[in-house]
């Protein structure tokens, strides 16, 4: 599955695009529109982007979960070493190390999720200015077979809606946002 990005200037055009894409077999669950105009999307019955598309919850949670896991393993290693040297009378062993790693992982994921609630999704940062200007970001998830059909439809029927790139739907915790936009308006 690949995600294609298009930017429309009005809710009416976004609605026409959505209807045309539905005609190609793109379901509502594969078409998301992100805009500051949530009421307009609702009025025109356009499937709006959900918080997972808008906010950096999963990406930041994954990054912090990894850091929490490493911190838990490091603490476990220090405690095991302190016991072996004789500085500590508590032997946590492998089960204790796994518990500390699990606690670190869960705490990191929770903390990252909370931080991600205040950040714009790193995958849409390149469209920040378009969204803030009142445009409509159309995100279409397509299979390999649908991709040429969607591109052809958009090029022929909607030349005023430019193709703005593509990407994967998956989250890569190794990707860093170039700019962190804090979520305040949509």
Write up this protein.
- The chain is α+β, with helices and mostly antiparallel strands and 186 residues long.
- The protein contains 7 helices and 4 strands; from the N terminus they run βαβαααααβαβ.
- The protein has helices spanning 11-23, 38-43, 51-54, 57-85, 93-116, 128-132, 146-157, and strands at 2-8, 31-34, 136-142, 163-168.
- The protein has a 4-stranded antiparallel sheet.
- Helix 4 runs antiparallel to helix 5.
- The protein starts with a strand and ends in an 18-residue tail after the last strand.
- The model has no long low-confidence stretch (mean pLDDT 91).
Describe the SSE topology.
Elements: E1 2-8, H1 11-23, E2 31-34, H2 38-43, H3 51-54, H4 57-85, H5 93-116, H6 128-132, E3 136-142, H7 146-157, E4 163-168
Antiparallel strand pairs: 1-3, 1-4, 2-3
Task: Produce a short descriptive summary.
With 186 residues, the chain is an alpha+beta fold.
The strand count comes to: 4
| Number of contiguous helices | 7
Report the radius of gyration as a whole number of Å.
Answer: 22 Å
Percentage of residues in DSSP E strands: 5-15%
Helix content: 40-55%
Kindly report the average pLDDT value.
Answer: 91
Shape: elongated
Q: Biggest β-sheet: count, sense, barrel?
A: 4 strands, antiparallel
User: Helix and strand string, N-terminal first?
Assistant: EHEHHHHHEHE
Category from helices, strands and their pairing = alpha+beta
